[in-house]
Amino acid sequence: MSEPVNPARSRTRRHATPLPLDDDATLHAMGYPRKLTRRFQAFDNFAISFTIINIISGIFSSFGFGMKAGGPRILVFGWIGVSVMVLFVGAAMGEIASAYPTSGALYFSAGKLAKRHRGAWSWYTGWLNFAGQVGGTAATDYAAATFIQAFIALQWPSYQVTPQHTVAITAAILLVQALANTYTVQLVAVLNRISVWWLLIGMVVLVTALVVLPAHHQPPSFATHFANDTGFTNGFYGAMLGLLVTSWTFTGFDGSFHMSEETVRATVNAPKGIMRAIACSALTGLILMLALIYAIRDYTAEAGASAPPVQVLIDALGTGTAKVLMLIVIGAMLFCGLANMTSNTRQIFAFSRDGAMPGSRWWHSVSPRTRTPVKAVWLAAACSLVLVAPGWWSDTAFTAVVSINVVGLFLAYGVPIFLRLRLDSFQPGPWNLGRHGKLVAAVAVTWIVISNVLFMLPQSAPISAKTFNYAPIALAVVLLIATAWWFTTARRRFQGPVSYGSPDEVAAMDLI
């Protein structure tokens, strides 16, 4: 077993860094006993983030917006540029994950990296992360329900698509995903392995069909075509909004971080999982994006359709083939929601372990039979259902609630990276960036600030109740509740991540 990394050696090349500590010894050094089963190998850890990023789900959900906000030029070159920026964010997060490989992930590291007010930094990061993940599960499963209904309507034209049906289907999806997460970690790992191959094979099938079957493709120069149908006359503003297509897709890669306590050699495999998931998603996503763009036949008509990417498939391949490919998309969305719920559950487990949630003693308990935080699973499912419920009456209300997904997550990503940037005494783990760590962190924080500003700007004009961007309001509500709660009771009882004792003491508390 190797010794911890010496700060003086952190400036050396990564291959000179000592090997990681034993997983349990690392967890004990952070003050926690082992409660969860370590069944995730390196591939499984990568799979959780790759599945949550989910290029098929992300591109098919936001492609229509990109057709109006910049068109192919921004969809292609914006994808490349934003992917590079997200790699900086992932690298900065990975370095932190290597130093603090725990289920608490972002909120835990924020509490450890803060110079002062550790409890407050940890508190706000944890609640932003919680809200963002709950919103992510709700939004993904709601999108899956929408595509399921679109498929049913294509198969049986007499079927009536209604908001009530969408909410009911979403509730059924959440139930199945909660049941899957209730059983062993091994089952979740197997499903995530399947999801990787579903995504990769599905991407190959989609791209092959779009390249081989259409009788007509757009010319190579079409990748530079620019379109601004956002309603705003300023083309640069429209193009900047188009960058959100990639930013919306690249959320959830903190899943590898949250699964650290169930990952073998987590100090290395968790950061590698983050980086591999982002890199693989960037490459495969670009290929799928190009295939969709060059298969476009009638740009104006397809951009104005209720589901533009589905209309692209129908026009290019015919209804029969489009329906088969839609099943691939629906499957990808379902796997994405499952992985998102898994990550959300581990954050709830860790946050409750430190006493930061109402009823904490319930939510951090682990089933003695399955070794999973079963109660946290059902809390995650219930909270997502609460967010989905307003969709029964209004699509606008639902959009307002789940818009916290992207801003909540990216702010939660930014806080520990920002705190690491301010800290001169940061002691890295085995996977680290050496002397480039602060530069990478600075680029990551800069991009997070820029992207969050874009997330909260108006995205279409004229602005009305239907087109208004509710993200700032949703963020303000979360911060207002967290602030009121903090100053009334939480600041007196929550001081950030707790330690259950010395390494020897917590080792004696291990349940496995």
How many domains is the backbone divided into?
Answer: 1
Give the name of the CATH architecture: Up-down Bundle
Helix/strand class: mainly alpha
Report the helical percentage: 55-70%
Oligomer: single chain
Cα Rg: 22 Å
Mean pLDDT: 87
Q: How would a crystallographer describe the biggest sheet?
A: 2 strands, antiparallel
Helix-strand string? HHHEHHHHHEHHHHHHHHHHHHHH
DSSP strand count: 2
What is the CATH topology?
Amino acid/polyamine transporter I
Q: Which term fits the overall shape?
A: globular
Distance between the termini: 20 Å
Total helical elements: 22
Strand content: under 5%
Query: Regions with pLDDT < 50 over 5+ consecutive residues?
Result: 1-20
Look at the structure and name the CATH superfamily: Amino acid/polyamine transporter I
Main sheet: strand order = 1-2
CATH level 1 class label = Mainly Alpha
Pfam families: AA_permease_2
Subcellular location: Membrane
Main location: membrane
Keywords: Membrane, Transmembrane, Transmembrane helix, Transport
Walk me through what this model shows.
The protein is mainly α. The chain has one domain: Amino acid/polyamine transporter I (Up-down Bundle). The protein is 68% helix and 1% strand. The protein contains 22 helices and two strands. A two-stranded antiparallel ribbon has the order 1-2. Helix 2 packs across helix 15, helix 6 runs antiparallel to helix 19 and helix 15 crosses helix 17. The protein is globular, with a radius of gyration of 22 Å. It starts with 22 loop residues before the first helix and ends in a 5-residue tail after the last helix. The N terminus is likely disordered.
